[in-house]
Amino acid sequence: MGTVWRARDEVLGRDVAVKEVRAPAGLPTADVERMYARLEREAWAAARIAHRNVVTLYDVATEDQRPWIVMELVRGVSLADQLDAEGPLAPQRAAHIGAEVLAALRAAHAAGVLHRDVKPGNVLLSNDGRVVLTDFGIAMVEGTQALTMTGEIIGSPEFLAPERALGRAPGPQSDLWSLGVLLYAAVEGHSPFRHDTPLSTLRAVVDEELPPPHRAGALAPVIEGLLRKDPAERTPAA
Q1: Per the count of CB atoms within 10 A, which of 107, 119, 146, 228 is most buried?
Q2: Chosen CATH of 76-233 out of 1.10.10.60, 3.30.160.250, 1.10.510.10, 1.10.760.10
Q3: 136-171: per-residue pLDDT in tens?
Q4: In this structure, what are the phi and psi dihedrals at residue 201, rounded to the nearest 5 degrees?
Q5: Is 117 labeled as catalytic in the residue annotation?
């Protein structure tokens, strides 16, 4: 829902990333306002988390009645781009990335924030070796009211946990499911429950058994533990 621009902070003399939301033409005013509120909540959510594996927020500016988030510029590529360019990762490399994303999620959960959209496109592989979780635009913060319409699916269907696909309240275990799907996609080259349509994908997430990972090696038990349908049986973050 946003475009990220590279910009220059002329006061502090540093390059930054600036996230802009451009509402689709014809979108009702109430929905536009909801999008802007969601963007502001991303800033609030990210600002609560101080961790090397979470993108750093610098400021929120308002221009033309729209919020713009000023963030750390992470030089590198997304995990999604890496997979598109070079194909599946070796299990050892995927395990390293997964451990770094897990550290980011632990920090977020400790701050009372659920990410709700963990996927390769939201994981940045920095040129300096960092793995950075970004885009908290649909994050849920403890004690806040949801900024979505009833019945709206929030998140990417193929990475959505079964309990969320069923409309149940998410918890930290829901982010861990998404991490499991990310790891599966990283080593196998595709997510395990992807189908032709969002609805059929959600049905697969809820009803279908996990296709056994064939390239995961020693990472297979970790993936299988994270992708248990019952969140109470899922491998915990600790």
Answers
A1: 119
A2: 1.10.510.10
A3: 755 565 544 444 433 445 568 999 999 999 989 889
A4: -65, -45
A5: yes
